[in-house]
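hey can u check if this looks right to u? its 254 residues, i copy pasted from the old doc so theres a chance i mangled smth
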Amino acid sequence: MSTIIYPSPIFGPVQSRRLGISLGINLLPADGKVCSFDCIYCECGFNEQHRPQKPMPTRQEVAEGLERKLQQMQEDGQLPDVLTFAGNGEPTCHPHFPEIIDDTISLRNRYCPQAKVSVLSNSTMIHRQAIHDALMRVDNNILKLDTIDPDFIRIVDRPAGTYDVDAIISRLKAFNGHVIIQTMFLKGDDIDNTTEHYIQPWLQALKDIKPQQVMIYTIDRETPDHSLHKATHEELDAIRDRVISLGIPCTASY
């Protein structure tokens, strides 16, 4: 099984399918995975297989590492298009996530003011006011909503603890449009969220949330569950067009 465990706290830059030249910020340990989901499609593998021994990087380590990298990229004449919080799990799990966001915005303004600050999150921590407020301060608040079907969430996203999708949708609405919804479409032995059973309720949720944008995508790297496979270009294009017909910008990544 091939999985990706990212360096911490800074990795890349990498060419993102959706965001351009992306400098990664990983708030999780460099030797394992910490996540409130245990998705069967996660490129970092299953949580149980990558229990970290190292601690999360400190706020100071993140700021110092980011500044060093931005200084180097400035000297090389290639600054990033985006600073992306991603990596080995859920970035909002870090106890100093809001303060790190503020540090990152300050460094962005100093070294690469044209770059966007993006957060890729599974939405499980957005009920915390400090997390909500921090996400309101970033340029690209990219939050996951793979479906609104509880059984699919239980089988595919596999949240740790209670996950109430209706409560998640309510909290997504509370961003008042300052949110980008990210949805994975895939197929497996007994799962397929490209069907009308899943798409129609998901579209209704988008109408309620009123996001600034929707990003749909499918599997790009090896998954820990080897029974999974991609949604087709045609399926993604059809879903994308239905989102656009609601008046919501939407991109599809294959």
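The two ends are 22 Å apart (CA to CA).
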